[in-house]
């Protein structure tokens, strides 16, 4: 498999108290003295995803644009029965979910963005209704 600019390597999966996972590019990296330093990889990935959503140039000069497009196109070609074991698909889905949480564009042209936003909004509405019933 071709290495795609380390974009997949920058993704971490974190689990919150409810067991849900959230993917986000690593915001910090340890230095030799154990302290943490902030990186810009997360901002770069978000900006690239936003660019990819609007870019229709298959020969775009932005190198990360082509890499992200290649990752996204993998989602459409990877057989659904192989996706749970695939090393790429879950990480790309996490990147797309992370983008969707930040995205205010309606409709967003990035694959799955609108569907992820709709699902999240429905989940939040359901949670609010449950909270209203308990109070």
Structure commentary:
This protein is mainly alpha-helical and 135 residues long. Helices cover 48% and strands 12% of the residues. The strands form 2 sheets. The chain has a two-stranded antiparallel sheet with strand order 1-2. The protein has a two-stranded antiparallel ribbon with strand order 3-4. Strand 3 and strand 4 (36-38) form a beta hairpin. It is globular. Residues 1-6 and 9-38 have low confidence and may be disordered.
How much of the sequence lies in strands comes to 5-15%
Q: Report low-confidence residues grouped into runs of 5 or more.
A: 1-6, 9-38
Give the oligomeric state of the chains in this entry, treating copies of one chain as homo and distinct chains as hetero: single chain
Estimated helix fraction: 40-55%
Q: What strand order characterises the main sheet?
A: 1-2
Quick one: overall form?
Answer: globular
Order of helices and strands: EEEEHHHH
Number of helices: 4
* Biggest sheet details: 2 strands, antiparallel
Which structural class matches the secondary elements? Answer: mainly alpha
Q: Mean pLDDT across all residues, rounded? A: 74
Radius of gyration: 17 Å
In summary, what is this structure?
The chain has 135 residues and is mainly alpha-helical.
């Amino acid at each position: 498999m071709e290495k795609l600019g380390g974009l997949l390597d920058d993704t971490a999966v974190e689990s919150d108290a409810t067991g849900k996972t959230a993917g986000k590019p690593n915001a910090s990296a340890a230095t030799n003295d154990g302290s943490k330093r902030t990186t810009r990889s997360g901002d770069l990935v978000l900006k690239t995803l936003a660019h990819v959503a609007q870019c229709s140039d298959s020969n775009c000069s932005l190198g990360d644009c082509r890499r992200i497009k290649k990752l996204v196109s993998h989602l459409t070609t990877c057989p659904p029965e192989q996706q749970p074991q695939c090393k790429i698909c879950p990480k790309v889905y996490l990147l797309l979910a992370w983008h969707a949480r930040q995205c205010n564009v309606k409709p967003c042209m990035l694959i799955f963005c609108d569907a992820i936003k709709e699902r999240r909004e429905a989940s939040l509405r359901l949670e609010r209704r449950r909270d209203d019933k308990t109070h």
